[in-house]
Amino acid sequence: MKNIFKSVLLIFFLTISCTKDDSLGNDLINSNYPYKQQVGYSANDILSNKKFTDIYIEVMYVDGFKPSSETLTNLKNFIGSRTYKTNIIVEERLIDIPLKSIYSIEDVRSIEDANRSIFSIENQLAISALFLNGKSSNDTETTTILGTSYRNTSFVIFEETIEAASNNILGPSKITLESTVILHEFCHLLGLVNLGTNMVANHEDTAHSAHCSDENCLMYYLIENGKNAPHWIKNEQIPQLDANCINDLRANGGK
Q: Considering only CA atoms, which of 188, 219, 182, 57 is closest in space to residue 174?
C-alpha cells in the first residue's frame, strides 16, 4: 500500500511539473550537455538565454601563468555586451600538471579532461579556459599560436607565448594582447566566422577560414599569430568586432 501511494504521488508530481512548464525536460537535457563537439556547436546556447541564463567560466592555469584580472574583466564585459546571459561567473583555479615546453591539441584535451570540474547543468552553461606555459605544437617559423578554441565550450591560451610576444618594444602590453586573444578565441565559440553562426553577408576570409576579411576586425586571422599580432594591435586598443560579425551574432540570438 505504501509503495502504491509513493507511485501515485510520483506520477502526480511529474504531471504537475510537466503541465506547469518544460523546465524539467530542459534540466534533464542540460545535465548531459555535450562538451566535446566541434567549435561553434554551442554558439546559440552561449549567445541567447533560451536554454541557459547564466554562464560559468572555469579558468584553469598552471603555476606562474595566471591570467590578469583586467583580462578576465574584459572578457566578462564582452560577454555581457554580446550575449543575453543574466549572470557571468568566472572562477580561477591553479592546476598541478606535468609541465611541457610544447603542447599538442591532444595534450590540451587531455589536460582539460583530467582537470575540468564545472559542466553545463540546469540554467548554467559552463566554459573551460586553460592557460598554459610553453607553446603550441602548431607553431612554425612564420606563425606562433597564441590561443586555440578546440571544442564547443573550450579554449586554450598559451600564456608564455603571449608574454614573449608582448615583450616586443613596439608591441602592446601583455594585458592588451592577452585580452585580444581571449576575446578572439571566445568569438570562435560564438561561431565566428561562419563556424556555427551563419553569415548575414559574406565576409569570411577565403584564404583563412573562420576569420573575417576586415583587417581591423577582432576576428582577423593575424590576431592569433604571435609574430604578427603585436604589430596589428594599435594604440593599446583591443580590436573590436566589425559590423558584419556583430550582425551575425545578433541573427543567431546575441546582442
A: 182
Summarised one tens digit per residue, pLDDT across range 109-154 is 999 999 999 999 999 999 999 999 999 999 998 889 999 999 999 9
Q: Is the pLDDT of residue 221 over 50?
A: yes
Residue with cell 567560466: 57
Instruction: Locate 73 and state its grid cell.
Output: 574583466
Please check whether residue 104 is in contact with residue 118, taking contact to mean a CB–CB distance below 8 angstroms. no
Nearest to 210 by CA among 227, 226, 192, 197: 192
Residue ranges of domains in the chain: 23-251
Q: DSSP letters along 32-87, please?
A: T---SS-TTTTHHHHHSSSS-SEEEEEEEE-TT-PPPHHHHHHHHHHHHHHS--SE
Superfamily of domain 23-251: Collagenase (Catalytic Domain) (3.40.390.10)
